[in-house]
Amino acid sequence: MSRRQLAKLRTDPIFKGRQFTAEVILWAVRWYLMVPISYRDLELMLQDRDVSIAHTTIFRWIQAYAPELERRLRPYLRLSNGSWRVDEAYVRVKGCWIYLYRAVDSRDQTIDFLLSARRDAEAAKRFFRKALGQPHTVNPRTIAVDRNPAYPCATAEMKADGKLWRSARLRQYKFLNSIVEQDHRRVKRLIRPGLGFSGFHTARRTLAGYEAMAMIRKEQVRDIGGRDMRAQANFINKLLLPAA
């Protein structure tokens, strides 16, 4: 990162009042969201780089910057295709299991996600509305789901409301969802070191960061390679620069 970029980052309102430089903050946020690691382990990694910091401070950084990263990333994503795979994963929050709705397209490109306390038609409709409202999504031709009876009800109501194409086909075949089920494993692997979440909003903010970093690593951003760490770091820094 250049000195000019670092100076701009320090003036961004989202970094106002922070004890550490934006360069340190973004390094910690990027690595926590990218690899399975606990806050305490990341604290040790930073200490090895002569940065003395408490793991609770890293937690606050994730809560502040992970959802902001996901929000600013959306306009830069490649357009997804119209073949959706939708499924729910289970996430432990305060000792209870709640539902994480997720969708990818046939190329394994992330479409969207939604954390929900319920697994019913209303939750499914909220998820579809959220997904269709993203700048990188298109109205699907086909939607592959499991045998959850909430999906036919949700899609029928959305077609009646004109939110979903009437020609969109709902395909309830479990084997078609192998792509999204494999993608669930990545999310669960990232969650595992933290042994779940302490609250719903904590989970939602952290998961937003996990998904944002995964989109970058899946090469959903043009000209950013999945293994080009420098390009990814520069892109994230650019996203968090203040408007010129």
Question: Which structural class should the secondary elements be placed in?
Answer: alpha/beta
Q: Alpha-carbon distance between the termini?
A: 17 Å
Strand-residue proportion: 5-15%
Q: Output the radius of gyration.
A: 19 Å
Oligomer: single chain
Chain-wise SSE layout:
Blueprint: H1 3-11, H2 22-34, H3 39-48, H4 55-73, E1 83-93, E2 96-105, E3 110-116, H5 121-132, E4 142-145, H6 150-160, E5 169-172, H7 178-191, H8 200-217, H9 229-239
Parallel strand pairs: 1-4, 4-5
Antiparallel strand pairs: 1-2, 2-3
Helix pairs in contact: 2-4, 3-4, 4-8, 5-6
Describe this protein's structure:
With 244 residues, the protein is of the alpha/beta class. Helix content is 48%, strand content 15%. Strands 3-2-1-4-5 form a 5-stranded mixed β-sheet, with helices on both faces. Helix 3 (39-48) packs across helix 4 (55-73), helix 4 crosses helix 8 and helix 5 (121-132) crosses helix 6 (150-160). The longest helix is centred in the first third of the chain and has 19 residues, at 55-73. The chain is globular and about 60 Å long.
